[in-house]
Amino acid sequence: xxxxxxxxxxxxxxxxxxxxxxxxxxxxxxxxxxxxxxxxxxxxxxxxxxxxxxxxxxxxxxxxxxxxxxxxxxxxxxxxxxxxxxxxxxxxxxxxxxxxxxxxxxxxxxxxxxxxxxxxxxxxxxxxxxxxxxxxxxxxxxxxxxxxxxxxxxxxxxxxxxxxxxxxxxxxxxxxxxxxxxxxxxxxxxxxxxxxxxxxxxxxxxxxxxxxxxxxxxxxxxxxxxxxxxxxxxxxxxxxxxxxxxxxxxxxxxxxxxxxxxxxxxxxxxxxxxxxxxxxxxxxxxxxxxxxxxxxxxxxxxxxxxxxxxxxxxxxxxxxxxxxxxxxxxxxxxxxxxxxxxxxxxxxxxxxxxxxxxxxxxxxxxxxxxxxxxxxxxxxxxxxxxxxxxxxxxxxxxxxxxxxxxxxxxxxxxxxxxxxxxxxxxxxxxxxxxxxxxxxxxxxxxxxxxxxxxxxxxxxxxxxxxxxxxxxxxxxxxxxxxxxxxx
Amino acid sequence: xxxxxxxxxxxxxxxxxxxxxxxxxxxxxxxxxxxxxxxxxxxxxxxxxxxxxxxxxxxxxxxxxxxxxxxxxxxxxxxxxxxxxxxxxxxxxxxx
Lengths: 487, 96
Description:
Chain A has helices spanning 4-10, 14-17, 20-48, 62-94, 101-124, 132-141, 162-182, 189-215, 218-253, 260-273, 289-317, 323-326, 328-350, 353-359, 363-393, 400-433, 438-475. Chain A is an all-alpha fold and 487 residues long. Chain A has a domain at 9-126 and 149-185. The longest helix of chain B has 39 residues, at 4-42. The two termini of chain B are 27 Å apart. Chain B has helices at residues 4-42, 50-72, 81-95. Chains A and B meet through helix 1, helix 8, helix 9, helix 10 and helix 11 of A and helix 1, helix 2 and helix 3 of B.
C-alpha cells in the first residue's frame, strides 16, 4: 500500500484532475430527463384512472409515455447523474484525470443523442414502420427493421441505436479504466465496484439488445431477457450506486467505512451471485425449472450479500447517528439504504414460487420497482447533488428549506406509493386467484391507482422544489459558501 | 482508536458472513449445476438452456480470474488499509 507520506508528495490539485463543468452538465442533463420521466409516469398513472389529458394523439399515447418514463429514468437520469459523479470520484480516488477530457465531452454529447434518439424512436418509429423503403430494407437485410421500440422491457432502445449505445459504453469504460489502471496500491472498494460496472454494463447491454433481436427466440430469448432486465439494475445501477456510497458516506462522516474486508465480501458476492438471478422474473414459464430454481437460490444468496453491505453502513454511522438527522445528504443516503434493505428483503420473499402465484403481473411488482429505482438510487443521486452542487457552484443552497421539502416529499411520496401498490398487488392477486372477472380487479384497483397519482404528485412537487432551488442558487450572487453539505 | 474487542468483532463478522455466503450459496449452485449437466446430456431439447448459463459462466469466469489476479498481486494483503488511504488522500486534495 502507498504510504501517506508518499501520497502527500504526489498529490495533484483538485482542479487539475476534475473537470467540474462536465460534472455540472451531466447533472443538469440528468435533471431534465428526470422531469420528463416523472411527467411520463404521471401521464401513465392518469390513463389508469381515466384522466388522461392528451386523448386521440397517437404520438402521445399512454403506452409510449410509459416507455419514455422507464427509459428516461434509467438512461437519461441515472446514467447521466452517475457519469457526472464518476467524473468527480474516479479522478479523486485515483489521483489521475480521465483518459481524455475531450472524450468525456464527446461522450456527454453522444449520450444525449442516444437518449433523445431512443425517445424519438419510441414516439415516432411506429409511424414510419409501413413505409416502402423500410419494408424493402427489411427484406434485403433479413432483419425485422423495427423502427420503434424493441419488445423487451428497458431494451426498447430501437435496434438502429443499439450499436451506437454499445460503442458509447465502450468509450465510457475506456475513459475511466485508464485512470483506475494507473492507481497505486491496493484498490479501494469503490474502484472494484466501478471496474465491474463498466464491464457488466457493456456485456449486459449487448446481451439484452442483440441476442433476443438477432440470435435467440422463444424460451431461450425469454431467459436472456429476464437476465437483462434484472442485470441492468443489479450490474449497472447497483455497483455504481454502492461504489458511490462507499466513497461519499465516509467522506461526509469523516470516518472510514466500518469494515473494508466486509465491503469486499459484498462486492465479490455480488459478482458471483447476481448475474444468474434475473430469471426469477419468469417463474412458472417454460424455461427449465433448474434455471428457475437457480435464480431463486441466487436471489436468496444476494440477500446475504445485501445484509453484509447494510451491516457495514450501519456499523459506519454507529456513534454518529445524529448525522442522519442533521446532515441532509447523509439522510438521503441512509433513507435509500433502508429502502434498499426493504426491497431486497421483499425480493427474497417474492422470488419463491408460492409468493409468485399471488403477485405475478400485479402492481406489487410496480411498487417494488419504484422503491428500488426512485426510493434507493434516485434518492442517493439527489443526496449526491445536494452535497456536490454547492461545491460545484461555489455557493450555498438558495434555500435549505426547499432542500428539506424535496427530501420529505420524495421520501414520504415514494414510500406511500410503494405501500399503496404493494397493497394493490395483493388485492389484484386475490381477485385473480378467486377467478373474479377482469373488470372486478380493475374496479378494485381504482382507489389504489388514485392514491398512486397523489403520491406521484408529491414526488413531482418535491422535484420541482429542487429544480427551482437549483435555478435560484445558480442565479444568486457569489457568497462566502462553505461549500459543504447542507447541514 | 478502535478497541481490540471491536476489531475482533469486525473480523469475525466478516469471516462468518463470507463463509455463510460461500457455503450455502455454493451448495445451492453446485446442485443446480449438476442438474444442468443432466438436462443438457439427457434431454434432446436441453441444449437451449445452455445460453443463459454460458452468459453467466463467461461473466463470472472473468471475475474469478480477476479475483485470482488481485490475490496474487497482494491486493488483499492489507485488507483494511485502503479505507484509511482514501480518506487521507481526499482530505489532502481539499487542503491543496
